[in-house]
Records
---
Amino acid sequence: MPAGCVAVCQPNERTVAHMGELSAETLRRRGVQGYVVDGGCRDVAFIRQIGFPVWCRYATPADIVGYWLPEGFGSPIEIGSVAIRTGDYVLADSDGVIVLPENAASDIVTETERVMATENQVRKAILDGMDPQKAYLTYRKF
């Protein structure tokens, strides 16, 4: 995986860890920015301690060795109803993961900034004492 990317994995498997300490150390040293897997992860506390961002569906001590091998790299995948392709933008925090399709990212960011500005107006109005219902009716956003 190239430096600067976020690796995304759809293992279509629900019994073993698809990320662990040694893989995280290796990816981190290669400059990979994080790892998202629709599957398991082990050594989660250690991976967090070294500061490598990992998002997974579940944690398990079950090792992957001998059970699963990747079928390809850079191919489009689907997690839930979300199609993910090389070049898409992956954003993640403690609330979850979102994917911005490369061809729509600019428009999505522009709209998000507009929504956030409106939410900031609502927040300010409420903190300044406006009734939350009135703030919603005024700004049509909550």
---
Amino acid sequence: MPLHIAFLRAINVGGRVVKMDQLRALFEGLGLSKVETFIASGNVIFESPAKAKALETKIAGHLRESLGYEVGVFIRSPAEIAAVAGHQPFPVADLEADGHSLYISFLSSAPAAEAAERLRALRTDLDDFHIHGCEVYWLCRTRISESAVSMAKFERAVGVPGTMRNVTTVKKLAAKYPAAAPRGKRRD
């Protein structure tokens, strides 16, 4: 049965606390199997024969009904996570420099060409952006809380819903749930 990795937006931020056992139960209540959570920031791994887009809609509706607020759901396969974790959007020296962090925004769809222009306009000596498929990579050469680019500005520039994770989390997920065989991009 296919393995799916869901990245949830609005879980355990802004005063909205959802315990991981409750989150697992919500996913199991949808008939999803082998449900696991990975750190308490809205990463859920499960098996289902359903397609990613159908699952995103179904899970988002169930979470909205159960939790009382909108939760964005962005699903990727292990092969997609491996590709995202392995993508090299910036020079290695920049990625490994002290104080630099790389964040990855998982999007509902690939951003329009205008998004690339808007992100270019946000670039500074501290912040750089790279679009690759349905993800945006954000290199922050300081702490993200000290960046001149706010999350609101970033989200307006991208123009489609998404949720962000540190590259360390993404690499840990890729290592823990390796792709059985490369299957290419899967946004069905």
---
Amino acid sequence: MNYALFTYGTLEIPEVMQLITGKQFKTESAVLQDHARYKLKSGAYPAVVFEAGKNISGTVYFDIDELDIHKLDRYEDFCYQRQKVDVILDNGDKQDVMCFVVPRDKKDLLSKVDWNKKQFIDEELDSFLRSITVTK
């Protein structure tokens, strides 16, 4: 089975996704409705949580196989849970995808600070890439 995965933070950066999976994927921009993206209190990376009326932009990766999903599951922190969500693709189509979200019972792990992708890439990406442990 192959998956589509909506990404909105570090996994949205192609170098991170390629380092974890060893692959490049077809992508498309998308919007996840009724969710908000905030930095975790304990890190420089974000998480999303259900929040009615909020929308976030991100990237969908297509044709991710079971092995890649397993690698991504191990990469993600304990506070994330992979869930099925609907996103709106750039072409207006609705797409059923997987997404790593913070369950409501762990919402207290989030700050109220929005995550800035450009700032992360400029200031932290190099050290972040060096810190990733890739498992086979």
---
Amino acid sequence: MNRYIVWLWMCSAMLLHSEVTHLWADEAFLEKNITIIDIRTPTEWEDKGVVYGSHLLTFFEENGEFNVSDFKVKLENIVEKEQPFALLCRVGKRSRIVADFLSKTFHYHVINLKGGIMHLIYKGYHTKSYKKTPKKLKLD
């Protein structure tokens, strides 16, 4: 019985310190003063464009790999721990996974933009074009 009470207390404490909100990606949301982190890949940014003012921070690489510690360091340079922010991907699947992970593991207040960039485009949003800058050649 005591283990059950401790388990319930731990679960409720986790829920109090973490939060994920799931909202449809639309222009009304974009007009709010909330930081948007676009976790798509550079190839996706080139293909569909980006949301003006969003921060481009890939979570999953093209091959599906990810580096949580690297992502977290870069994220901390963009948002404060207590500051709510939104995640955007192509259709909302990856952003949902990452939002849940960041919320449960690091207790961030995350907004998952359902439907992703594709929903925004479908609703008539015009993205800003993205051109990948070539890496500088290292000359010996």
